[in-house]
Design brief:
Layout: H1 2-30, H2 34-43, H3 53-58, H4 81-88, H5 95-98, H6 100-109, E1 117-121, E2 133-135, H7 138-145, E3 153-157, E4 167-173, E5 178-181, E6 186-188, H8 189-193, E7 211-215, H9 221-227, E8 235-242, E9 245-255, E10 273-277, E11 284-288, H10 316-329, E12 335-343, E13 346-353, H11 371-380
Parallel strand pairs: 1-2
Antiparallel strand pairs: 1-7, 3-4, 3-7, 4-5, 5-6, 8-9, 8-12, 9-10, 10-11, 12-13
Length: about 400
Amino acid sequence: MQNEKGSRLSRIAQSLDEYREWASLAQQQTGKSFLTQLREIRALKHTGGQCGISDYYWYKLYDDDYLMGRGAQDFLGWRLQQKFSLALNPRIAVLPAWDKSVFMVIAGSAGLPVAPIRACFHRAERISETLGLHLKSKEAAGDFLRDPSVFPLFGKPAYSQQGFGSAYLAGYDPATDSLNLLDGGSMPVDSFLKRLDATVDHRFHKPECGFLFQDSFKLAPEIHALTNWSAICGVRVICLNGADGVKPIRAIWKIAVPPNHVDNFSLGKYGNMLADVDLATGEVSRMIGGFWPKTEVLPKHPISGRSVEGFRLPGWSKILEACHHGGAVFPLMKIQHWDFALTDQGPLILELNDMGGTEIAQVHGHGLLTEETREFLKCHANLQAHPWVNAL
């Protein structure tokens, strides 16, 4: 009990030190005193988005010149991240957003531009042909991975979050019976096979749902020239899906940097970057590498040195078309977070998310809780089950 209390006090002390550091940086950037910042944080309680200290600093709410729209009142706090999706997406409708195998079968049948699957490890006796070669056992999966002709591949659990359990498999080395990875490392085949039936993280990875192997796509040449790195850099498009059709409300480009093989941001822990995307044109702006106040707007890519000014994501009209088509395919999901890979074959859907990270959507000065979103919530949410919506 004493150790637990000491650990809790230590975490509180660390948080206070971090808050002091953030406040000092915010003062340097805007000239606002600590007292002014405290007053503004307290005022956030009355805006409906339940923003707190972390939200105030992460999203640069302390800088009025950085914010778009109505300013701080448009922002959704981290406390409402789950509730936001729960209010709009009934649990009976979201399985395709959690199980990638289910998504691929439905989306592929509907003609959505999904990234095709080469093979699928699954214990079921029979699965859809949409999922490629059916690998029913670890032995069959091992034989598949020891075939040099299948590479390169991207492997990912059917049920996983934040990239847990996924890997870019560049090739097979028979001399060491190992898989070569994108970053130059390697992994014994038998070690990789363990993740097919043993979780790598109990919170985010459910191995019983199977494992997918996708052909590795090449980046669109325009993007490779900008990033100078072969990992797929996906774009997240957030859409409201109402009776009158789909309305995209935010788009963020997730930029993977070496040695990462995935573009996940995960609160900045991977070092990947985020760029704001104009919904009408696909033009990129405001590239940053983390949360405020410890980040900055990057005018050039830090690896290639190329400027992002005026850069437009290729195939943008096809991305918007796929979002509109996808809304009708999954009609009961009223908020949809789509991930697209931007490849040399055009945009391909990687997955549909139910509880997409609201943090990455708000770091560029745009809040998600606009007047339009508030009205949409009041129209589609079960107000008895989600009373916080009534306060909007």
